[in-house]
Amino acid sequence: MTSPLTPRFPYAAGGDGARRLVYGADYNPEQWSREVWEEDVRLMREAGVNIVSLGIFSWALLQPTRDTWDFGWLDEVMDLLHRGGIGVDLATATASPPPWLTTAHPEILPVTAAGETVWPGARQHWRPTSPVFRTHALRLVRALATRYAAHPALVAWHVNNELGCHNVYDYSDDAARAFRTWLRHRYATLSDLNHAWGTAFWSQRYSDWDQILPPRQAASHPNPTQQLDFKRFSSDALKEHVRAEREVLRELTPGVPVTTNFMVMGSTKGMNYPDWAGEIDFVSNDHYVQPGPQDRDELSFSANLTSGIAGHRPWFLMEHSTGAVNWQPVNLPKQPGELARDSLLHVAHGADAVCFFQWRQSAAGAEKYHSAMVPHAGADSDLFRSVVELGRTLEALAPVAGAEREPARVAILFDWESWWTSEHDSHPTSRLDYRQEALDWYTALHRLGVRADIVPAHRTGLAAYDVVIAPVLHVVGQTLAKELTQYAEGGGHLVTTYFSGVVDENDHVWLGGYPGALSELLGIRIEEFGPLLDGVTVDLDNATTGSLWTDRITVSGRDVDVLARYRTGTYAARPAVTRRTTGRGSAAYVSTRLGAAGLTELLPELLAPSGVTSELPEGARGSVELVVRRDAVSRYLFLVNRSEEPVPLPAVTGDVLIGPATASGETLVLPPREVVVLRQPASSS
User: Do 415 and 327 share a structural domain?
Assistant: First the structure.
């Protein structure tokens, strides 16, 4: 198995073996006439495009019936792209089954928790555990790999597309059978399963494996550990589909790297991507800006997390938008400069490919109002001119290709199982938003000008960080608790929050008081949670305000300092923020949701023991984001102005790769929505 730490990345899209940043889009020539294909390649060359993802939704055209195939049009397109010097990331086309298949085999269609069939008419109308679907899908994959194994345009394989976007949870009979098999492998005996699921509650004890079902719609709240295991199983079922397609591709095209596009963004949480990363040759991601006050923080957070999933090695931005999307309530175009700024922020966080959905804006279909590199207005448009300009910028950034993302001194742990479990039903509050809490910490660090990495919770190497922030780390088993304790005692500074350490890997509460597995490390004991109603807040004596949650904290250990107390509310005068010195480090606890503003006020005190401070001049903090990539020779400083005002950057130096250059000795001024990349010697860190 290829590790994400040693990826095979398709840099040779141009055919000369040189490293370059990869630039392109999803390309859907089947929507257009052959005359348009010729024009497309000409415009691609003008824009600097060197790769396209091809054939993603073309199953019905490639295999019009069960026993007929039509590769002629794809042969033409592959040849045309190769003549134009454009590499192909060829999709396996299994994302959307054709009508003939669903008509002949309706048993491949997913089923909802309420028992309703998900019918054809959109996309991803297939069960991840359907043996019938798997047979037909792998037949298609084998046909594609056999036909194009030696084609010179082929530089990568694209398994399926956005796996799980619409079909991650299937409650069909196929899923039930596969779930039982998965559970047998996990627990071995029914006795172990009954213990893990706590089936003594509500008379749920199982006496035969065939009695077990997915957590379908029930009269009340389904068993919480059953829900957690079904989430684990559902992620694994899709991962198994990736493996199945990958094995065919590796058998027939062993020299061609394989990827599939993740969706690290927003509320997409059904797929445990850190667990998938080792199954592919390089990590790919799709990302679309989420409108709101933290829109660029969320973009940066998602790109940063993708880098963490990829082990800080280069990754592939498979999709983002040139402008408006089509699926939000209000679909805003991007402002001048945002197309380039958004793209380059992904590059800053390790993307060595910048690709869009899609190349040419569709004239028909559900996504016809989704922006593209060539809009409805055509090439004579401001948008296409911006696309061409970005292509030139990426060419100038060729030296960055292959550089790793330089680790920061602060890490934010992100844990998929805590995300899943902390938001289950029947909890102290249904208002908890795991990802938002993590994003608030990230936003606060940005406002202070402090770089941070987003890292999967079970990734090794925490000792490399001076500070580790673990917001709502709800699921903590004995092994993780030991690792965090060793981290703090060894000199690291741990910060965690409300509803952390409360349950083990089976979603069983650690008894003896909260925060359970972390109580001894933190030196506190909580007898009772104090969630807050909507609109209710509490004041702290450090001039911050909490919402959502409070804790009734008793200091139980030695060397615990109370950094802030509640000034109002049920727990007035009790500790709200604590820090315990342990070994050569410390462990701090924040018991309420302070939001980005409150965390910005609190963080300097939490960071103080580590000595972590901003690398940016004071006037740039909160406006400019700094991200660093490095190779053996150079450091590449990406300075991204996320504000609408020019920002001076005194004492920031280096050779300008892209962006506004200044005369020697003058202060660099970063214009609104601009990006500058400086190159420094590697020894300057």
Answer: no
Q: What is the pLDDT of residue 461?
A: 86
Query: At 663, is the pLDDT very low, low, confident or very high (cuts 50, 70, 90)?
Result: very low
Model confidence over 634-659: pLDDT tens digits? 999 999 999 999 999 998 889 999 99
Q: How many CA atoms lie within 13 A of 313 on its CB side?
A: 15
| Helix ranges, 610-676 (H) | none
Query: Do residues 292 and 429 both lie within one domain?
Result: no
Instruction: Kindly state whether residue 177 falls inside one of the protein's structural domains.
Output: no
Distances from the Cα of 517 to the Cαs of 275, 415, 467, 511, 577, in angstroms? 23, 16, 20, 9, 18
Whether 566 and 646 share a structural domain: no
Claim: this prediction has a pTM higher than 0.85: yes
Pairwise CA distance, residues 421 & 431, whole Å: 13
Question: pLDDT tens for residues 153-168?
Answer: 999 999 999 999 999 9
CATH number at residue 418: 3.40.50.880
Reply yes or no on whether the pLDDT at 352 is more than 60. yes
> How crowded is residue 439: how many other Cβ atoms within 10 Å of its Cβ?
21
Q: For the beta carbon of residue 637, count every other beta carbon within 10 angstroms.
A: 24
Domain for residue 178, yes or no?
A: no
338 included as an active-site residue: no
Indicate whether 17 and 102 sit together in one domain: yes
CA angle 171, 306, 432 (to 5 degrees): 60
Catalytic-labelled residue, pool 162, 298, 423, 601: 162
State the total domains in the chain: 3
pLDDT digits (tens, 9 = 90+) for 464-498: 999 999 999 999 999 999 999 999 999 999 999 99
DSSP alpha helix (H) spans, 295-370 = 295-309, 338-348
Domain boundary among 610, 633, 662: 610
* Residue 319 designated active-site: yes
The verdict on residue 658 lying in a domain is yes
Structural domain boundaries, residue 366: 11-165+254-401
* Residue ending a domain, choose from 341, 374, 401: 401
Same domain? For 479 and 625 the reply is: no
Catalytically annotated residue among 245, 279, 298, 319: 319
SS3 state of residue 88: strand
Question: Are 530 and 638 contained in the same domain?
Answer: no
Tell me phi and psi for residue 397, to 5 degrees.
Answer: -90, 10
Please indicate, yes or no, if residue 314 is contained in any of the structural domains.
yes
Task: Over range 566-582, report the average pLDDT.
Answer: 98
Exposure letters 485-523 (e unless 16+ CB within 10 A, then b): bebbeeebbbbbbbbbbbbbbebbebeeebbbbbbbbbb
